[in-house]
Amino acid sequence: MANTTVVLDNGAYTAKVGLANEDEPQVIPNCIMKAKSERRRVFVGNQIDECRDTSALYYILCFQRGYLLNWDTQKTVWDHIFSKDGIGCSLENRSIVITEPQMNFHSVQEAMLEMLFEEYRVAGLYKTTSAELAAFNYVADSEERTTMQSLNCIIIDVGYSFTHVVPFVLGRRVLEGIRRIDVGGKALTNHLKELISYRHLNVMDESHVVNQIKEDVCFVAEDFKNAMRVHECDKKRKEIAVDYVLPDFTTCKRGYIRMPGQPREEEEHQQMVPLCNERFTVPELLFNPSDIGIQQVGIPEAVVDALKACPWEAHRELLLNILIVGGSAQFPGFLPRLKRDLRSLVPDDLEVSLICPEDPVRYAWYGGKEVATSVNFEEFVYTREEYDEYGIHGLHQR
């Protein structure tokens, strides 16, 4: 049964999905998209790769403010994922390991169970969070630790809608220590859209293109105040400023940073966006959400606050095992800045060590694979028979 278990890290932006006996998951956009260029067709998940012109792409998302609320959209995406065009196998009579947001609403959990057991006819279900799967994978990756029960760590999950700080003491989530910041990849992309639209040209409908710009040019400044002196002299400005060539979807499908002194032939006819301090002021929101009016602390302060809810005996080990996952953890300069800010907030006699895996987006999925192939996995699965007898209440009692 373990071989046929499906592992689905069901994120708000992408779903990471695959069979537990596969080496790696597919990463599929967890949404439906409509393009201006092809009005008669909707693109589900990774079908967007077939779209020739992704300008003014309209997204219909399954998640709203970080919670799975649009079930019709989610069913359409899951139907695609579990078809021949997706992972090529159905869910019927298979077990599934599936993730949900931290502190998920009971009504959302109930709807998920109902859909999986009644629409997809799964044999059993193991419901967890991506932070728990990341912690499980961290134990599996570590040579020193042999069991989850000995794990003290802090998971920072920089997601699409939220950033969560989740402390684990002796392998269990410290629920009163979980902290949520209402800033994630979506807020950063929206902020960059506003900056470019205000300063250069209107890109408010270009979420897809602006998201690519964010991925290609943004970085975290180690010293933000110093970085903001970029306009004091031409030398500093030249170090930061770039011209980003926008895609025209005929000769160029994805934008790129223009190399000074090495122009390409087609560049004369293409639109460019000059970018300077936008490159580091956008990711700065992860450290200072108040820059866009969100009255919350940044990641370093949230980590320290989470620490206060944990037993003091575990503080030393927690700070030595801070694991960062999620798509927005990939900005260059993110780790040094976070370490510097944390260092100034925690006692001098405690060391701070940050770990960011090579693939922070799929890291939790690999944890799900470890769970699904573990020896005692069957004991944790909530089966269809149990669901038929007890409904959602049986799962809560678990």
From TrEMBL:
Superkingdom as given in the UniProt entry: Eukaryota
Pfam families: Actin
GO cellular component, one term: nucleus
Subcellular location: Cytoplasm, Cytoskeleton; Nucleus
CDD domains according to UniProt: ASKHA_NBD_Arp6
UniProt entry keywords in alphabetical sequence: Cytoplasm, Cytoskeleton, Nucleus
SUPFAM superfamilies: Actin-like ATPase domain
Main location: cytoplasm
Similarity field: Belongs to the actin family. ARP6 subfamily.
Xref: PANTHER family: ACTIN (PTHR11937)
Protein's name in the database: Actin-related protein 6
Organism for this UniProt entry: Drosophila lebanonensis (Fruit fly)
Lineage of the species this protein comes from: Eukaryota, Metazoa, Ecdysozoa, Arthropoda, Hexapoda
